[in-house]
Amino acid sequence: MNVDGKQIINGVSATTGTEFFYAVERVKGNRLDTRFFNASKADIDMAVTVAQQAFEVTRRKSGLEKALFLEAIASELEKAGPQIVEMACLETALPTARIEGELLRTVNQARLFAKLVRDGNWVEAKIDTGDPDRKPAPRPDIRSMQRPVGPIAVFGASNFPLAFSAAGGDTVSAIAAGCPVIFKAHPGHPATSEIVTRAILAAAYATGMPAAYFSLLQGDKAEVGIALTNSVGIKAIAFTGSNRVGRLIFNAAAARPEPIPVFAEMGSSNPVFLLPQAMAERYEAIAAAYTNALTLGVGQFCTNPGMLIHESTGAQERFYENLINNINAAQGGVMLTDAIAHAYAKGVAGRHANEALELLAQGELPQDEQLQVPALFKTNLNTFLEQPQLEEELFGPSAIVVAARSKAEMINFAEGLSGHLTATVHGTEDELILYKPLLEILETKVGRLIINGYPTGVEVVEPMVHGGPYPATSDARTTSVGTGAIYRFTRPVCYQGMPQALLPDELKDGNPLGIWRSINGQFENTSISK
Amino acid sequence: MNVDGKQIINGVSATTGTEFFYAVERVKGNRLDTRFFNASKADIDMAVTVAQQAFEVTRRKSGLEKALFLEAIASELEKAGPQIVEMACLETALPTARIEGELLRTVNQARLFAKLVRDGNWVEAKIDTGDPDRKPAPRPDIRSMQRPVGPIAVFGASNFPLAFSAAGGDTVSAIAAGCPVIFKAHPGHPATSEIVTRAILAAAYATGMPAAYFSLLQGDKAEVGIALTNSVGIKAIAFTGSNRVGRLIFNAAAARPEPIPVFAEMGSSNPVFLLPQAMAERYEAIAAAYTNALTLGVGQFCTNPGMLIHESTGAQERFYENLINNINAAQGGVMLTDAIAHAYAKGVAGRHANEALELLAQGELPQDEQLQVPALFKTNLNTFLEQPQLEEELFGPSAIVVAARSKAEMINFAEGLSGHLTATVHGTEDELILYKPLLEILETKVGRLIINGYPTGVEVVEPMVHGGPYPATSDARTTSVGTGAIYRFTRPVCYQGMPQALLPDELKDGNPLGIWRSINGQFENTSISK
């Protein structure tokens, strides 16, 4: 396999860094042959410099040109599919079917943003044609639209080696905006990242895009990411990962002479609320589906439902019985990296040692130290309120069940929550109406409120919000999934009194792109006749 | 006049703070009678607590209810107009005609946001009706819209005692979003702020809104603002003022356990580019209009054009002659506060002392120490590149003219610029096309690009962008003028599988509000038939 372990900057594989690390065949624990070099300061500077140069080209690309590039990325990913899937499975221990599904999602994401920029409506074109007769002075012609901000640093996530990695949603939304990407690969899957980078570059070559529209940096040290964050030419950062690292990057970016926005998705524990009637009617199905959502992919999802709260009702014994049996029967799995497995094991040990938590169920303990198993604990509301750290995400297939004694306690619990990506409520249609106050509280706590479903499996559709109040993300006004993700990398630019010939096509009277625009306050997709 | 100098929290005038300061009759320098009390920590905590409670009400208000409140604010401001104008002129030394114009603008802003929320299209309703037949699992129904974030701290600006103050654009956009406002008055016009607060509260009372939708805090110490910034219940901050104070607030907000966004508009020096043919054809008119824009209101505008750059051409002598005569003849004026007058005098003295700057013209030096006069300096490109501090805003009617020897030098100058609110280019239609590369550079440096106009006089229209890259603002993705200002205070919330009865009206199939929505990727203002 064509992997050489260096940075890929401006289309060239090279490194001045000499420190290196190895990719690992995760299940067997064997090192792969290739050495991956930590990007040096010089490598980073070079990547940022060529990205700044490329921005002069990429910011002028039309929606159609960017769509062709994104579609070519999709095609190249499909072409390299078998190689990508094999390597991603090898590096992450995720099963083939999961990685194949993730590749499909990644390809679809690229095509979603291609469609977005091909349609062109996303630019938020707004036109006020002015008023030449206004007194004391005429009101000038004023028009505005979204324009790209500049080079973006994207940090790959460990748990989605494709969909939140080199060609993932952050990259394709930045490319769609017209922003060059400098991609810092996650050290958990450096070879996969390199193979995907070559697919992106083949697409750039095929569609006449500058090679520096996308560069790859490798590194298994925090220094690489911090140096990238501090690079003057970087205008925004997209990150998916832990709260600890996300906050580190956020702090560094805020302390720069020129602060830049950081869009960090830092996970959450995604509480699930189980209302009494739903529990009585569907305890078996919910126990099964909840176990599945919790243990799927060894629980390595940002949207993993790590908290479950219910009221004390007659059905709860049967629910617990099902849930405990399911968790006890659940298989363990190899986690994504040593560090993640270690953190999970430590977290579960902490829950075992916590006297306020009762162990309900734990998957079959394996012979293999690499394998981690689901673990379910129980507590009451008071403990939860006294130990706020219980609300923090434990990345992996462990959950805490909170037994509330009443509806009021359940609402208290919801009010005390900090920010999460999602909250889920299971209830019958009648009881959901009775629990409207609960839903109205949860709406202020999360980016996505799910009724009678499960938070895992984030659909890539226009209305999706994969975000939420801190600490789920560092900027609740944004999403990293769905078409809204593009606005992280754009800003509005206003043209006052600009001659028609010099306006962007999106703002010309003739509306040559045929896009929807707000013209003097009315949505129209027609031209302006004067 | 009914001014008692205390905080107004939850509709009640009271203070636990005991430190105080006085408002000043600016032109004469006399203290007004009323003492204004610095808000204590207890006052601030109380204001934030009641704002959090009010948010439970305000976030549920319909667009129509918020529109009625905003329209009532507009009417109450008109009713109190004479009193407001008198006090604002007294406190700021700004002339009556200017303040009357600013009041009209402030009233219009409130009505603009009333119209925005009455129409309701602003919420960015997006609907994906799902796919029950998708394999392996159905795609759920997913809908999203913008929702308010919570209590907002607004810091009043010195230079717009109405339009960027208590009932200014930040306040009315936050109210339109459904967010309670805690307003920290600028100590330069505390009495005006109190009178305007009473108008807002009269409107709240008349339209059944909670009194804590808007609270007033007074203070002439940085501690008041920092304590407000650090209050857990505050979810975002809007600020207009100096770079020094803006960055102080930004840093404090970023260092909070839960960081919050700060939308700081920190001014800029707004370069004006004068192309050769325009100079030859219109030197007299441009010299006159530029002088007017520079000296208007003693130059106390964020968009004041403090830099002018031109190429060496035959017409430049005549242009300079006109410009120098105009500036020499320009009147001085009393600046907004002692601190501002002192900073301006110090800045102009620094320019006098700078050997690389040549004094071209200075308004007639007054007898009165309070009066500050316009001052025009000249330098060349190299000096400008060597002394980056020359690019920083000097708040007041002083400008630096940069003589470029060629088109290339002018483009170099543009490339070296940091972020500004605006850039302006004067050119004939033909030469603007020749200078397209200049326009394309400037677009990356500013929020608004003005052709053959002047940056002062920010129109309150939908496409307006009053923002720009750092250091002009702390978040270039936003604007503080125009309808886009509302999105600083909202975030998208996504509802998955939500029953119709529990969805917000904006997202219901029947579209009871008749708003424009994106439904499965198509813009429509109709209902969804199933």
Describe the structure.
Two copies of one chain form a homodimer. By secondary structure, chain A is α/β, with parallel strands linked by helices. Chain A has two domains: 48-266 and 476-487, 3-Layer(aba) Sandwich (Aldehyde Dehydrogenase, Chain A, domain 1); 271-451, 3-Layer(aba) Sandwich (Aldehyde Dehydrogenase, Chain A, domain 2), CATH 3.40.309. Helices cover 37% and strands 20% of the residues of chain A. Chain A has 15 helices and 23 strands. Chain A has helices at 41-58, 63-79, 81-92, 96-119, 169-177, 190-206, 222-229, 243-254, 276-295, 316-329, 338-353, 381-386, 407-416, 429-434, 436-443; strands at residues 7-9, 12-14, 20-25, 30-37, 126-128, 142-148, 152-155, 181-184, 214-217, 236-240, 262-265, 271-274, 307-311, 333-334, 358-362, 371-372, 375-380, 398-404, 422-426, 448-451, 490-496, 517-519, 522-524. In chain A, the strands form six sheets. Chain A has a seven-stranded mixed beta sheet with strand order 15-17-18-13-12-19-20, with helices on both faces. The first copy, chain A, has a five-stranded mixed beta sheet with strand order 21-6-5-22-23, with no helix packed on it. In chain A, strands 9-8-7-10-11 form a five-stranded parallel beta sheet, with helices on both faces. In chain A, strand 17, helix 12 and strand 18 form a beta-alpha-beta unit. In chain A, helix 2 runs antiparallel to helix 4 (96-119). The radius of gyration of chain A is 25 Å and the shape is globular. Chain A starts with 6 loop residues before the first strand and ends in a 6-residue tail after the last strand. Strand 20 (448-451) of chain A pairs parallel with strand 21 of chain B, so a sheet runs across the interface. Chains A, B: This is Aldehyde dehydrogenase (NADP(+)). Chains A, B: InterPro entries: Ald_DH/histidinol_DH, Ald_DH_C, Ald_DH_N, Aldehyde_DH_dom, Aldehyde_DH_Superfamily, ALDH_KGSADH. Chains A, B: Keywords: Oxidoreductase. Chains A, B: One of its GO terms (molecular function) is oxidoreductase activity, acting on the aldehyde or oxo group of donors, NAD or NADP as acceptor. Chains A, B: Residues 36-461 form the Aldehyde dehydrogenase domain.
